[in-house]
Write a structure and sequence with these properties.
- This protein is mainly alpha-helical.
- The protein has a single domain, classed as Orthogonal Bundle (Arc Repressor Mutant, subunit A), CATH 1.10.10.10.
- Helix content is 66%, strand content 9%.
- The protein has a 3-stranded antiparallel beta sheet.
- The longest helix has 29 residues.
- It is globular.
Length: 116
Amino acid sequence: MIRVDKNKVKIRMASTRLEGVVFGLDMIKTFRKINPNIDFTTAGVFCLLCLIGKLGVKDGSEYFATSYERIAAAFVGLSNVNLCKIKNKKEGFYGEIIVLTDKGKKVKAKLTKLLR
Protein backbone atom coordinates (compact mmCIF):
# COMPACT_ATOMS: atom_id res chain seq x y z
CA MET A 1 0.00 0.00 0.00
CA ILE A 2 1.37 3.39 -0.95
CA ARG A 3 0.65 6.27 1.39
CA VAL A 4 0.25 9.71 -0.05
CA ASP A 5 0.39 12.92 1.94
CA LYS A 6 -3.05 14.55 2.19
CA ASN A 7 -1.73 17.81 0.73
CA LYS A 8 -0.39 15.99 -2.33
CA VAL A 9 -3.74 14.28 -2.83
CA LYS A 10 -5.48 17.65 -2.72
CA ILE A 11 -3.00 19.08 -5.21
CA ARG A 12 -3.50 16.11 -7.51
CA MET A 13 -7.28 16.53 -7.34
CA ALA A 14 -7.02 20.27 -7.98
CA SER A 15 -4.73 19.60 -10.92
CA THR A 16 -7.20 17.08 -12.35
CA ARG A 17 -10.06 19.55 -11.97
CA LEU A 18 -8.03 22.31 -13.60
CA GLU A 19 -7.18 20.00 -16.49
CA GLY A 20 -10.90 19.32 -16.88
CA VAL A 21 -11.62 23.04 -17.02
CA VAL A 22 -8.88 23.58 -19.59
CA PHE A 23 -10.22 20.69 -21.69
CA GLY A 24 -13.72 22.17 -21.49
CA LEU A 25 -12.47 25.54 -22.70
CA ASP A 26 -10.52 23.95 -25.55
CA MET A 27 -13.55 21.87 -26.49
CA ILE A 28 -15.79 24.94 -26.72
CA LYS A 29 -13.11 26.73 -28.76
CA THR A 30 -13.03 23.77 -31.17
CA PHE A 31 -16.82 23.84 -31.56
CA ARG A 32 -16.91 27.62 -32.01
CA LYS A 33 -14.62 27.18 -35.03
CA ILE A 34 -17.13 24.74 -36.53
CA ASN A 35 -20.18 26.89 -35.74
CA PRO A 36 -19.97 30.10 -33.66
CA ASN A 37 -23.60 29.70 -32.54
CA ILE A 38 -23.24 26.21 -31.05
CA ASP A 39 -24.36 25.95 -27.43
CA PHE A 40 -22.97 23.98 -24.51
CA THR A 41 -25.65 21.30 -24.53
CA THR A 42 -24.98 20.52 -28.18
CA ALA A 43 -21.24 20.30 -27.50
CA GLY A 44 -21.98 18.06 -24.52
CA VAL A 45 -24.21 15.80 -26.63
CA PHE A 46 -21.39 15.45 -29.15
CA CYS A 47 -18.89 14.52 -26.41
CA LEU A 48 -21.30 11.95 -24.98
CA LEU A 49 -21.79 10.54 -28.49
CA CYS A 50 -18.00 10.25 -28.84
CA LEU A 51 -17.84 8.25 -25.61
CA ILE A 52 -20.58 5.75 -26.36
CA GLY A 53 -20.69 5.53 -30.18
CA LYS A 54 -24.41 6.11 -30.72
CA LEU A 55 -26.93 8.09 -28.75
CA GLY A 56 -30.72 8.18 -28.54
CA VAL A 57 -32.90 11.14 -27.60
CA LYS A 58 -34.14 9.39 -24.45
CA ASP A 59 -30.62 8.54 -23.26
CA GLY A 60 -29.38 12.08 -23.92
CA SER A 61 -32.39 13.55 -22.17
CA GLU A 62 -31.84 11.40 -19.09
CA TYR A 63 -28.09 12.05 -19.00
CA PHE A 64 -28.38 15.84 -19.24
CA ALA A 65 -31.66 16.03 -17.27
CA THR A 66 -33.34 18.06 -19.99
CA SER A 67 -36.27 17.70 -22.37
CA TYR A 68 -36.45 15.40 -25.37
CA GLU A 69 -37.01 18.49 -27.50
CA ARG A 70 -33.74 20.06 -26.35
CA ILE A 71 -31.75 16.93 -27.15
CA ALA A 72 -33.53 16.52 -30.51
CA ALA A 73 -32.58 20.13 -31.31
CA ALA A 74 -28.95 19.31 -30.45
CA PHE A 75 -29.15 16.30 -32.79
CA VAL A 76 -30.37 18.56 -35.60
CA GLY A 77 -27.64 21.11 -34.86
CA LEU A 78 -24.93 18.46 -34.99
CA SER A 79 -26.44 17.02 -38.16
CA ASN A 80 -26.56 20.47 -39.80
CA VAL A 81 -22.78 20.88 -39.37
CA ASN A 82 -22.24 17.28 -40.54
CA LEU A 83 -20.79 15.97 -37.26
CA CYS A 84 -23.41 13.24 -36.98
CA LYS A 85 -26.20 11.66 -38.94
CA ILE A 86 -29.67 10.99 -37.62
CA LYS A 87 -31.16 7.52 -37.96
CA ASN A 88 -34.73 6.31 -37.36
CA LYS A 89 -36.34 9.59 -38.51
CA LYS A 90 -39.60 7.83 -39.37
CA GLU A 91 -40.40 7.23 -35.68
CA GLY A 92 -40.31 10.92 -34.82
CA PHE A 93 -37.63 12.51 -32.71
CA TYR A 94 -38.33 10.24 -29.72
CA GLY A 95 -36.87 7.32 -31.67
CA GLU A 96 -33.96 9.18 -33.22
CA ILE A 97 -30.45 7.85 -32.82
CA ILE A 98 -27.31 9.67 -33.91
CA VAL A 99 -23.97 8.29 -35.01
CA LEU A 100 -20.73 10.04 -35.94
CA THR A 101 -19.96 10.98 -39.53
CA ASP A 102 -16.42 11.01 -40.93
CA LYS A 103 -16.18 14.72 -40.04
CA GLY A 104 -17.44 13.91 -36.54
CA LYS A 105 -14.77 11.24 -36.17
CA LYS A 106 -12.09 13.80 -37.12
CA VAL A 107 -13.36 16.23 -34.48
CA LYS A 108 -13.43 13.36 -31.96
CA ALA A 109 -9.76 12.64 -32.78
CA LYS A 110 -8.92 16.32 -32.29
CA LEU A 111 -10.67 16.36 -28.91
CA THR A 112 -8.92 13.13 -27.90
CA LYS A 113 -5.56 14.81 -28.62
CA LEU A 114 -6.52 17.59 -26.20
CA LEU A 115 -6.83 15.00 -23.44
CA ARG A 116 -3.26 13.76 -23.87
